Amino acid sequence: MKRSGIINRRLAGALAALGHTDQVVVCDAGLPIPAGPEVVDLAFRFGTPTFAEVLAGLLDELVVEAATAAREVEAANPRAARVLAEAFPRTLELVPHETLKTRTAQARLIVRTGEARPYANVLLRCGVPF
């Protein structure tokens, strides 16, 4: 058994299959999930695991070139806005929430957290480790 890192079998496999420019969405429990992308649902109950916990774990595993979040996060969810600003100080793009939902359909993978606060969502574009 793995000693560290992501131990969820489905998530570890999905992350290993990602390539350069593939997109991953980390979302709260309320974001509508479109048909198409692979979905790994980590939600156990409202609030568990948190958006911040899942994002931190994914960032330990992935190289991320850019991130996109809903502009509404700044006013509606200052906690998530801080998490995003700290994680992506130079590469965070803010777009209207409807735009983010549209872009979600083009993601290769959606990771659903138990976050129960609005706009705790981000689209990550994968990079390469060199």
Q: Could you explain the architecture of this structure?
A:
- 31% of the residues are buried.
- This protein has a 6-stranded mixed β-sheet, with helices on both faces.
- The model has no long low-confidence stretch (mean pLDDT 94).
- The chain has 5 helices and 6 strands; from the N terminus they run H-E-E-H-E-H-H-E-H-E-E.
- With 130 residues, the chain is of the alpha/beta class.
- The longest helix has 11 residues, at 51-61.
- The protein has helices at 9-16, 51-61, 73-76, 78-87, 97-104, and strands at residues 23-27, 38-41, 64-70, 92-95, 109-112, 122-126.
- The radius of gyration is 13 Å and the shape is globular.
**What does the radius of gyration come to?**
13 Å
The computed structural class is alpha/beta
Q: How large a portion of the residues is in β-strands, by DSSP E? A: 15-25%
Low-confidence stretches: none
DSSP, total strands: 6
Per the principal axes of the C-alpha atoms, what is the gross shape?
Answer: globular
Report mean pLDDT, rounded to a whole number.
Answer: 94
User: What fraction, in percent, of the residue positions are helical?
Assistant: 25-40%
* Sheet of most strands: 6 strands, mixed
Write the H/E string, N to C: HEEHEHHEHEE
User: Strand order, biggest sheet?
Assistant: 2-5-1-6-3-4
Number of helices: 5
Amino- and carboxy-terminal Cα gap: 29 Å
Helix-strand blueprint:
Layout: H1 9-16, E1 23-27, E2 38-41, H2 51-61, E3 64-70, H3 73-76, H4 78-87, E4 92-95, H5 97-104, E5 109-112, E6 122-126
Parallel strand pairs: 1-5, 2-5, 3-4
Antiparallel strand pairs: 1-6, 3-6
